[in-house]
């Protein structure tokens, strides 16, 4: 039986929608910080946190005890906490003799654990009785209501085997996960395993099905996969077949899929990412998507259920419903036992009774259990209430409460504890908001008399904040913050590789390709405009694989494919192996038509030589240029008649025709393919207009349009650590998890070009002739800043080099000293500058170091403003700083770009840290100590687990406690309020992120001396106090 | 000029969030649609407010339009396929009658 096209497409669409609440997972080589609840961002933060907690069986807030420790560390604003409690109390009915306000406040600050206990059978009357020392009434339970309760738990979107496990303790879920993980490891392996699943190129489901039919592992377990697989040919068909057998109504399929996928959300996220990543080598070679994954999972699920074949075990929805109706008491007891809710004192007897069976025995134990559970719940709740009342000397008031009032109190407590996380969160955010509000400098800087000695553009990354502050303090340096890809999205092809790396935020796909070419000329004045000089080398080494490998890579043998494509896997490795790299330059220019044609001709000639050698065994010296030209013309259909080659080799017409056909088809010497190659070559480089646009845009975005220094440093960043699968997480997020050097090189090369500057001058950006854009790399593990390509500087600049390097060196040492303290067990231990330097360098090289640096941990603020606004503040490496001057952005276009690009990425980073901190086991990836690399694409805990997503405990926790302070990103924009509102209203995404409370927004209007703070959708104002600007001026004279 | 043969087809104009582009093109590919045109960076107003089309550094959050000419028999399966997606996401599908001269590019 085959499904119709419409139904197949619908199932695909349903699975797509079902997977959206689950986060994407990028391979670890390019770790991408991502909000694990990105798929729920259409909800408010609180609603999404609640839904996410349910979906991932996780906590969405810290425990109360942790928040209480943060109060002690002054990270929580008590006044906000009190205000929030007052607002809550105002919504509740007052109770005689109970000061609810005081109770709740004490509850927050003094009582470490929640006080409302889950009660399924004990109502307020029972609690009331216990409080008055009376026996709990026997309880006449309504069997129908109980059946309804059980159906609510067991049916609906809950996977059938989960319900079976909950009733029979059968552990099918665990076995299923294990089999699915093994199937995934077989298929998705990227070169770690010595054995590869056969026929992987046919796709996940097909390859798995073909193997599953003969898989001993399944036979040994007694699974009859064949019986299921022969029902349908397509994965969609299998999915439909299984769900129909389970009797899941179609309107619940999407929810059902979501719950299935959430079981292994790491693999789900990876497969979902991989299916959408068009440039991903492994995905192109071995296709797979979530429909395949779902079909594999459901096949295995039903096979295991069939295998258990215990007739007593119902495994369709109607059978489970019938079992609940006919054996309500037994199913209830089983559910209590296997879901862990059972009262311990009676657990053993319940288990025995279930094992022995018999209606009357079960009935007896059921009655006894109901009474016992009701009694137990009522006593637990009463005890906690008494303890609480005793703290307020309110024990008598508590006893005096009538049942209705007690009920109201219990409801209030339960509701309060449900909302408590948000209260803490907002109170913590208030503290961080105050720190900014009180610390900003509102005074205007003094105008400069001369331009700064050097200007430095750093990434907005929080780790730049320290070094910028120190650099500004040690000398006449002006610093700026810009997203670390410097606003130029590039796809980069490193020297000696045929694969591209996207160096830009994952939100965009770069259109321009930049290649690296080795450059050995001793003449430093030679620039890349002398493209002709390097053409020969280009043809031979860099571009040949680029235009050929995709389609005819195998021609060069597997070795070639491996060398050009697989190294993506080894990029990091090789960087360590080949420390002595040749000097290289980037090819940024567009090829002209003639150059592109000549590359294609060269490739075609290589193909023809290979083909002749392969088919006729001729050696290279016997293949003359004339022969090659003639064969090429024939293959392209521009020449007919006998060829010289055919005559020389005495080929008959048929042989000749076949060879020419083979040139056209196997070796792709044909016009359509040549056009495709031309298109690919067209992606290389930037036009002059594009270069002008990118340079102008980057400079305007940060407000640097005049008074350029002699040196403008473009400082990318990267990290170094050993034996660390998470190394990429420490690199530049704006560069797609790569280091930021390439982006800096691209922008510098463009900005140093006279033609670009000429046009920028016309647009009002005056870059003096003596200004040089210089590239550097900030190593965030050691805080060293290494300046690159010094040899390109003109002699006139050399006399200043020493001053520049010693300024950078001083800043990096001071920065390392400040940061090293945070890595010590006791942060009060301040190391000397030299000791700190030794410490951070050791971290970068130590194989056993699980925490080489804190990375972005601690991130709290995002400041979009001129530097002087927050220059006076030390923000402990916890703030993203984006330079922005609203005065040169009247139409808010630059601000929209910052909000939709860098801010959105920073919000992902912030949320990744938030959730990895509040529940490191579920949202984070647990301890690195137990990690094993899986399939070279991710890590597992122990020898078999789901792919671990999120951040390891070593990144966000210190000694088991949060190091990262988990709150939402507090975004400060310096501009008039209307300016910001207009920008936000015109971009739907950011509007929804702010109105749904995923980021907290503040707007500093220094003209009106007002701080506007967006709070629960309302703007509230706070006056700013006058703070004069002191120290080095950041402001340029003309601005 | 030679006599032209006109063949009727249906034109689908699918407007959706950039984030859904891979999903939508995959669905079209699987339905056997032979080609489509994608227009990026749409501006306009809908039930979710105004969408700017000039976002520089975010392709997920702009609206795009995919235009495809398909034989009539594919329209219903495609709409059935897109239904679960558009139940959850903003966007629209317009269907109109068109004629083409080179049917072979669109069918078979």
Number of strands of chain A: 19
Q: What is the N-to-C order of secondary-structure elements of chain B (H for helix, E for strand)? A: EHEEEEHE
Distance between the termini of chain A: 74 Å
Mean pLDDT level of chain B: 88
The major pleated sheet of chain B works out as:
4 strands, antiparallel
Radius of gyration of chain B: 15 Å
SSE blueprint and pairings:
The complex is a heterodimer of chains A (1039) and B (108).
Chain A lengths: L4 H15 L25 H11 L8 H9 L5 H13 L9 H11 L13 H8 L11 H12 L5 H9 L3 H17 L15 H9 L3 H5 L4 H5 L5 H12 L6 H11 L1 H12 L4 H5 L4 H19 L8 H10 L1 H11 L5 H13 L2 H33 L3 H6 L2 H37 L14 E6 L4 H11 L2 E6 L7 E4 L7 E3 L8 E7 L12 H22 L5 H7 L2 H11 L6 E4 L5 H24 L8 H11 L8 H6 L3 H13 L5 H12 L5 H14 L9 E8 L22 H11 L2 H9 L9 E8 L5 E3 L7 H29 L9 H13 L15 E5 L13 E5 L9 H26 L12 E4 L3 E4 L11 H4 E2 L2 E2 L6 E6 L2 H9 L2 H8 L3 E7 L4 E6 L2 E6 L16
Chain B lengths: L6 E11 L3 H10 L6 E6 L1 E3 L2 E3 L11 E8 L1 H17 L2 E10 L8
Antiparallel strand pairs in B: 1-5, 1-6, 2-5, 3-4
Could you walk me through the main structural features you see in this protein, from its secondary elements to its overall organization?
The longest helix of chain A has 37 residues, at 403-439. In chain A, the strands form 5 sheets. A 6-stranded mixed β-sheet of chain A has the order 11-10-16-17-18-19, with helices on both faces. A 5-stranded mixed β-sheet of chain A has the order 2-1-7-8-9. In chain A, strands 4-3-5-6 form a 4-stranded mixed β-sheet, with helices on both faces. In chain A, 51% of the residues lie in helices and 9% in strands. The model of chain A is unreliable at 520-579 and 1033-1039 (pLDDT under 50). Chain A has 41 helices and 19 strands. With 1039 residues, chain A is of the alpha/beta class. With 108 residues, chain B is of the alpha+beta class. In chain B, 25% of the residues lie in helices and 38% in strands. Chain B has helices spanning 21-30, 72-88; strands spanning 7-17, 37-42, 44-46, 49-51, 63-70, 91-100. In chain B, the strands form 2 sheets. Chain B has a 4-stranded antiparallel β-sheet. In chain B, strands 3-4 form a two-stranded antiparallel sheet. The longest helix of chain B has 17 residues, at 72-88. The chains are: A alpha/beta (1039), B alpha+beta (108).
